[in-house]
């Protein structure tokens, strides 16, 4: 018995978006909220500054980890170190709520900080405060690497959605090559964090682990963001007026 043909699609109902369109749109939306729009004529310094969230974003990213590191290194008091770290994340989130500014990043930081603290308190091992970060780096790095290897680079999906060309960049050899290597570079950043920090975790060296986490955070994120911005702007030059 032959299979029945699919019923005709109602032209008034839009087709279901493809997975790559959904992913690209989500990445593009996140980039726009962070102030990273390649179509926006602005300086690289301004883009990197906005991408890091300005002074507030830098403090939210650095202070909880820095306070944990200092308190634990000096006093070896795990509950106090964790409590102050989580307390700072709560203060930052509350400040954003009061100011009615975007809270996604602050809430994400609060959840991550709280989960890390809960794990460390449960095990009694200070180094377990860094485990959620390892998981995040592993997931991000794996997703980026896989996307590049299968020809659907996440950087390309985000840039294509931002520039309004969807996945047309895949037909352009130059764009496809640039997006491939940009995605590989981001994957390598996450892999490098794991390669350097995991041995310190297994050695139980909390001070060195916390220090390197800070060093391999924003100080490496900022130049990678600048390189990505410049590369995308080169692929999509602004029209001459």
Describe this entry's structure for a reader.
This is DUF3159 domain-containing protein. InterPro entries: UCP010219. The protein is an all-alpha fold and 241 residues long. The chain has 2 domains: 18-37 and 126-241; 52-124. 72% of the residues lie in helices and 0% in strands. It has helices at 19-33, 44-51, 54-75, 78-99, 104-123, 131-149, 154-162, 173-203, 206-215, 218-235. It is globular and about 55 Å long. The protein starts with 18 loop residues before the first helix and ends in a 6-residue tail after the last helix.
List strands and helices in order, with pairings.
Layout: H1 19-33, H2 44-51, H3 54-75, H4 78-99, H5 104-123, H6 131-149, H7 154-162, H8 173-203, H9 206-215, H10 218-235
Give structural attributes.
single chain, globular, 241 residues, UCP010219, DUF3159 domain-containing protein, 2 domains, 10 helices, mainly alpha, transmembrane
Integer count of domains: 2
User: Helix fraction?
Assistant: over 70%
Oligomer: single chain
The arrangement of helices and strands along the chain is HHHHHHHHHH
Query: Looking at the structure, what is the overall shape?
Result: globular
Q: Which structural class matches the secondary elements? A: mainly alpha
- Kindly report how far apart the N and C termini lie: 64 Å
Helix count equals 10
Low-confidence stretches: none
Number of strands: 0
Q: What amount of the residues lies in strands?
A: under 5%
Mean pLDDT: 88
Q: Please tell me how large the radius of gyration is.
A: 21 Å
InterPro entries: UCP010219
Keywords: Membrane, Transmembrane, Transmembrane helix
Transmembrane segments: 57-75, 81-99, 106-124, 144-166, 178-202, 214-236
Pfam families: DUF3159 (PF11361)
């Amino acid at each position: 018995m032959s299979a029945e043909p699919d019923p005709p699609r109602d032209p008034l109902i839009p087709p279901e978006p493809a997975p790559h369109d959904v992913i690209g749109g989500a990445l593009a939306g996140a980039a726009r909220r962070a102030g990273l729009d390649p179509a926006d004529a602005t300086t690289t310094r301004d883009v990197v500054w906005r991408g890091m969230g300005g002074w507030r974003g830098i403090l939210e990213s650095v202070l909880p980890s820095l306070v944990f590191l200092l308190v634990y290194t000096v006093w070896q008091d795990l509950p106090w170190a964790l409590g102050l770290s989580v307390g700072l994340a709560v203060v930052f989130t509350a400040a954003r709520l009061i100011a009615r500014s975007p809270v996604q990043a602050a809430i994400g930081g609060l959840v991550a900080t709280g989960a890390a603290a809960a794990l460390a308190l449960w095990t009694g091992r200070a180094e377990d405060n860094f485990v959620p970060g390892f998981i995040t780096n592993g997931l991000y790095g794996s997703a980026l690497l896989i996307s590049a290897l299968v020809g659907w680079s996440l950087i390309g999906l985000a840039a294509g959605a931002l520039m309004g060309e969807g996945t047309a960049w895949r037909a352009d050899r130059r764009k496809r090559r640039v997006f491939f290597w940009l995605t590989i570079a981001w994957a390598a950043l996450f892999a490098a964090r794991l390669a350097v920090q995991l041995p310190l975790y297994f050695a139980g060296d909390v001070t060195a682990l916390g220090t390197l986490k800070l060093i391999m955070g924003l100080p490496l994120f900022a130049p990678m963001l600048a390189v990505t911005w410049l590369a995308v702007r080169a692929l999509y030059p602004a029209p001459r007026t």
